[in-house]
Write a structure and sequence with these properties.
Layout lengths: L2 H4 L3 H11 L2 H8 L6 H11 L18 E3 L2 E3 L3 E3 L5 H4 L3 H12 L3 E4 L6 H4 L7 E5 L5 H13 L4 E5 L9 H5 L3 E2 L5 H8 L2 H10 L5 H7 L5 E2 L4 H5 L5 H10 L4 E6 L2 H9 L4 E4 L13 H11 L4 E3 L6 H9 L4 E4 L1 H10 L3 H20 L7 H4 L2
Parallel strand pairs: 3-12, 4-5, 5-6, 6-9, 9-10, 10-11, 11-12
Antiparallel strand pairs: 1-2, 7-8
Helix pairs in contact: 2-18, 15-16, 17-19, 18-19
Length: about 375
């Protein structure tokens, strides 16, 4: 079957994914916090970025490739970390790690994933990133770093925009707890989604295996107040300096939204900044990530990574035009996985690459370096 004939856009994959996931799982994947105004703002502000079409460039095949941390990538895109990926689709972490390896793009494993670094390691390519929610205990912190290094993860991503648990009211209303506890209400939803149910039965109910190894098996908490919060701290500058001194690969700070912080982080020896409002899942009064990007670009020479709201190849070009070097998607890759299983990530990347190429043809950009020149 020609997947492009049936699923030509992420929106088509989204419709199929929603029909294959129990409602409480869909709410976990799709929800933000508060009234979800920040989530809507991410989309609206991306749509405000326009390009003037350019003509008479002749035939050409746009070059979508880029370079980051001395490595070449086929396009400026990677797989962002999502906590409890295995809840969204059975064995999601290993499937996405394998997809990253196959596609030649970064895959980022979350601290609160349902698989450990060691179980993902055999499926990991050369572009594995490990995202850290900062443990309070120095011994756990050191051990977690050591395990990520030994498993083959090349870059460390410190997430700094989750000092406290968000409310995510829509997610709470769904009845989801961490680890998931299948009440009669949730079981009724599972019964309607056989593919998810059979895969989950085969893999076992997902849980935060890395966190459980440090915290023990805590049960029955709200999905927004899981065991990870009992272990983590809100890091300060001393914490950041310790990580920089104890990690010998690229060190990325995720959750940067202020230019003043970008200046300090560059002075602290960080290798890249990840501009993100956590897709609206943490704070409902944040500007869109794309809104914050230009001021941060003006304040630093560091590579800039952006997420939150990216849905199309055109969005990737919009991010490049505003100063991003690289774009990460979390929700989109999980939608693709839920829609099509292991085929989903490859099809999504093909959708995005084709959309990038089509739009670059419209604005006369032969490669990504020319994108900023076409921005009015």
């Amino acid at each position: 079957m020609d997947l492009h004939a049936k699923y030509p856009a992420l929106s088509d994959l989204r419709t199929r994914a929603q029909g294959r996931l129990p409602k409480f799982v869909w709410e976990f994947l799709d929800s933000a916090t508060g009234t979800e105004a920040t989530k809507a703002r991410n989309r609206a502000k991306l749509d405000e970025i326009l390009f003037a079409p350019s003509i008479l460039h002749g035939e050409f095949e746009p070059d979508l490739s880029t370079r980051l941390f001395g490595e070449d990538y086929p396009l400026p895109l990677g797989i962002a970390p999502v906590g409890m990926s295995g809840l969204i689709w059975p064995d999601a972490e290993r499937l996405l790690a394998a997809a990253g390896k196959r596609l030649g793009i970064p895959y980022t494993l979350s601290t609160v994933a349902s698989q450990t670094p060691e179980t993902v390691a055999p499926h990991l390519g050369t572009h594995g990133w490990f995202q850290m929610y900062p443990p309070r205990d120095p011994e756990i912190r050191a051990n977690m770093l050591s395990r990520a290094k030994a498993a083959g993860f090349k870059a460390l991503v410190l997430t700094v925009d989750v000092p406290v648990a968000s409310r995510r009211e829509r997610q709470v209303r769904s009845g989801l707890t961490t680890p998931p506890r299948l009440t009669p209400r949730l079981m009724a939803q599972v019964a309607l989604r056989p593919a998810w149910a059979l895969g989950t039965a085969r893999m076992g109910m997902p849980r935060m295996r890395l966190i459980d190894e440090y915290a023990g098996n805590l049960t029955g908490m709200s999905s927004t107040a899981h065991a990870g919060y009992l272990l983590r701290t809100s890091p300060d500058w001393d914490y950041l300096h310790w990580l920089r001194d104890n990690w010998d690969g690229p060190f990325i700070v995720k959750g940067v939204m202020r230019a003043s912080d970008a200046v300090k982080l560059e002075e602290a020896g960080v290798d890249a900044l990840w501009v993100s409002n956590h897709a609206g899942r943490q704070f409902d009064a944040a500007p869109a990530s794309i809104e914050a990007l230009p001021a941060i670009r003006a304040a630093t020479s560091l590579p800039l990574i952006l997420d939150s709201g990216i849905e199309t190849g055109l969005d990737i070009l919009r991010a490049r035009a505003r100063g991003a070097d690289f774009v990460m998607m979390g929700r989109g890759f999980h939608i693709a996985l839920a829609a099509l299983g292991a085929r989903g990530p490859d099809h999504l990347v093909d959708i995005l690459a084709k959309d990038m190429a089509a739009n670059m043809g419209q604005i006369g950009a032969r490669d990504l370096r020319e994108i900023s020149k076409t921005f009015p």
